[in-house]
Amino acid sequence: MKKTINYNPEGKWSVKNVQKRYNDLAKRYKIKNQVTPMPCTHTNKDGFTWVYNIMDSIAKNLEINDKAYTQLAIEYIADNVMGSTTGYIRETLARKLRRVDLSENQKLMLINIFLVQLKSGKILKEYKEYIRLFKLIGVKPYTVEIEACLNSKKNYIKRAAIRLMV
Description:
The structure is a single chain. A three-stranded mixed beta sheet has the order 1-3-2, with no helix packed on it. The N and C termini lie far apart (about 55 Å). A hairpin with a 5-residue loop joins strand 2 and strand 3. It has two domains: about 1-90, no CATH class; about 100-165, no CATH class. With about 170 residues, the chain is mainly alpha-helical. The relative contact order is 0.11. The protein is globular and about 55 Å long. The protein has eight helices and three strands.
């Protein structure tokens, strides 16, 4: 009996769709040495196969500074996909994005994502990495919006705002 456990979601973030979107973005950014994302797999001696989330591949390859990978990482963070290991993946993506050359448009996208999450109170474990990335991009122009969150009745929002201001 062979069984496959696939950690990839259906729809927008399925393996097929991520690969298609990567190819489309690679054409748009005129990337010559394309590295199509592939999910890692593992098969044990009993024939069980695990297909890991394709976004792990995106995270590992962010270091090659491929603009298509960078854009997919930002879109994944924006979509806030929920599932097995997705928080860990978003956390890893944010950590790796700190070492990538981001365009001004990509910086603005990330800042908007982080501010919306802060204001709405949808702060998950990976927000610690988002704070580090936000600080690297620059929080100074957004001080007024962040300071407004210091008046929140929810302590976890206040703590996140304080971490951004320090």
